[in-house]
Write a structure and sequence with these properties.
Oligomer: single chain
Largest sheet: 5 strands, parallel
Structural class: alpha/beta
Distance between the termini: 40 Å
Order of helices and strands: EHEEEHEHEHEHEEHH
Helix content: 25-40%
CATH superfamily of the largest domain: SPOUT methyltransferase, trefoil knot domain
CATH architecture of the largest domain: 3-Layer(aba) Sandwich
Length: 238
């Protein structure tokens, strides 16, 4: 079972969308487990204060390292090998999340996620625990809870038994540095737009070629950055 632990001051945010669809079913089938840790549990004052003003001045509040450190320690209680349970902080300054990274994380035994709020967390936490920072995009959210759900869903989809067809995760965008080709279903004609004839031909060789061609055209147009990687890797394999 893949173990997910999430540190959040809003534990009721979970499972959220993670409780629906194939991800929710995978949880019911015990393919993965979810545990939330509320850092307020480790406070001693009556107001359960988990943040304080920014050192040096400035707007916003910062999560206190003494409180958050106890929450992090709780994630690793009774765990012998921390390497198999990476600790990740969802942050806009982190490295961009990629499908390659998701695939790597899915091969671990679990993952521990730290959801920030306000102006962030004390840098000493990141340094002491050697926390990896990941970003789901170049924009700012109010907190890390939604980003955590994005990361968990992307990982759980790759766990054996989650998807109905093993090919489903192999023929998607970003695999082999290509975006996915267009998909169609019945009716054959809608709004005077018809499904491409090749997809109804029954010729699987031609269908595969068409799909590859379309993936290449779409990738080149929509994502020139990964198109460069695709071209580079394609040339190196010749």
């Amino acid at each position: 079972m893949y173990k997910v632990k999430i540190i959040s001051i809003f534990p009721d945010s979970f499972p959220g969308i993670l409780g629906q669809g194939v991800i929710g079913k995978a949880h019911s089938k015990k393919i993965w487990s979810l545990k939330t840790i509320d850092p307020r549990k480790y406070t001693k004052d009556k107001h359960k204060k988990i943040d304080d003003t920014t050192a040096g001045g400035g707007p916003g509040m910062i999560f206190k390292p003494d409180i958050m450190g106890k929450a992090i320690d709780a994630c690793y209680r009774n765990i012998k090998s921390k390497e198999k349970y990476p600790l990740i902080y969802l942050s806009p300054r982190g490295k961009p999340l990629t499908q390659k990274k998701v695939s790597k994380l899915s091969k671990m035994k679990g993952i521990n996620l730290l959801c920030g709020r306000y102006e962030g967390i004390d840098q000493r936490l990141l340094d002491y625990y050697e926390i990896e920072e990941l970003s789901i995009g170049d924009y700012i959210l109010a907190g890390g809870e939604l980003a955590a759900q994005v990361l968990v869903e992307s990982i759980v989809r790759l766990l054996p038994g989650t998807l109905g067809h093993s090919e489903s995760s192999e023929m998607e965008s970003f695999n082999n540095d290509l975006l996915e080709y267009p998909q169609y279903t019945r009716p054959k004609t809608w709004k005077n737009i018809t499904i491409p004839d090749v997809l109804l031909s029954g010729n699987h060789k031609n269908i595969s070629k068409w799909r590859l061609d379309m993936s290449e055209k779409i990738t080149k147009k929509m994502r020139p950055d990964i198109w460069k990687n695709y071209k580079k890797n394609k040339t190196s394999k010749k």
